[in-house]
Every structure is written in C-alpha cells, then in structure tokens.
Amino acid sequence: MLKKTKTLGYNGNYLGPVVELKKGKTVTIRTVNRLSEATTSHWHGLVVPSSVDGGPHQVVKAGETKVVKFKVKQNESTLWFHPHPMGKTAEQVYKGLAGLLYVKDEKTKETMLPHKYGENDIPLILQDRKVKNRNVLEYADVEKIDGALGDTLLVNGTINPYFNVKYSQLRVRLINGPMHGTMQ
Ligand SMILES: [Cu+2]
C-alpha cells in the first residue's frame, strides 16, 4: 500500500476548486485559515485594489477568517490563486495550496471556444514534485536549493492521469506551476 503524504488544500485535500468570476459582478470571498500558521489568499493576475489582493501584508493568522469584497473589472481570462505569506509562500503552494480562477465576460458565449467545463473545457494544473518513498511529497529538499526540479509530474494533483476525449474540439487551460515564489 502506498504511504500517505501530508498535503494542503482549499476546501479539500489538495489544490482548490475552480473559482469562476463574472465581469461586472461584485464578489465576496471568505478565507478561513485552518492551518497552524499564517497564510494569505492572493488572486494572481486579477485586477483588484492591493488592499484585497492578499499580498504578504494581508495576513490571515492561524484560526482567523478574512473576508474580501471587490468588483470584477477584467475581460475573460484564466488566472490562479495561491497563498502569499512572507517566507512561507513556496512551501504552502508546494504542499497544495493553489487553484484556478476563471473570469468570464459577456463575450464568452460568442467565442467559438468550447465552454463545457470538464467536458470540452479542461483545466490542467501541471506541477513537478519530488515524491520520495513511494508517495511522500518532500519539501525539505526543495528548500535547500534555489528553485525546484521535481522527479514526478502531477496533473491536477494526480500522477499519470488520463482523459477520454469525446469532442473534436477541446479547450485546455494550462497552468504551469504552481511552484511559485520559492524565493519569497
Ligand atoms: Cu502569484
């Protein structure tokens, strides 16, 4: 039997849900920090005021809750979210804290791009990770060097996944990472 490994996730064990935002709408997002250390929720690539962008200054301490509210002003885009606490960004992301963020606008339906989520509009989160002892995510080794080179490729948190394509046209939304902020 494979060994279990410790991971982190948003609303789950690893990674997070795909968050879909609509241009022109005001959204409220609540972060409940159940970690034993501080974190932040940063909306990578989203055009929002810095006061709600979850940078290192918008700390959510262990056990605390933070609510942010902002208006979505951006055109259709594929972005992602992740923690951005001082000195802990890389480790928290490495262990699983990251998720996709889609912005949709009024033109989304007019485009010819496939838009059935999970059917012909597929999120692909690519990550390389060091997996030791048959199933343990090792961060300690990564920390020693400036950057990371994993021996194992994870796609949406899974090793060697596959997908049966049933459409002649497929949209894939690739996010390369998240091995982010190693130097932060
Ligand atoms: Cu980022």
From TrEMBL:
Residues 4-107 form the Plastocyanin-like domain. InterPro entries: Cu-oxidase-like_N, Cu-oxidase_fam, Cupredoxin. It comes from the Bacteria. Belongs to the multicopper oxidase family. This is Multicopper oxidase domain-containing protein. The lineage of its organism: Bacteria, Bacillati, Bacillota, Bacilli, Bacillales.
